[in-house]
Write the structure tokens for this entry.
Amino acid sequence: MKVLTLNIADGEQSNTPEAIGFAAPEELFRLLTAKRWEIVRALAGAGPMTIRSAARRLMRDVKAVHGDIHALLNAGVLHKTPDGRVELPFEAVRVDVTVRAH
């Protein structure tokens, strides 16, 4: 199973095809709102689809889904295919947060 890991990289953004590092917890939590998490869950392993198809699947307004998808695209969580569809080419997403003492 292909898994995408979203993690806190302690001040560094270290991105690979299988992992996206966020510099601070606030950055990750600002991105992963409840509605965006629904998009991640709906698109994980579902294959490429149009934004309109994603909105129908989620039973949400296309304009609102469009904005959320673009935030996830900009963060590298979702990918755009050459024909303009969006996808999350992973079957699962893991969020890894480690809290350390200062």
About this structure: The domain at 3-96 is CATH 1.10.10.10 (Arc Repressor Mutant, subunit A).
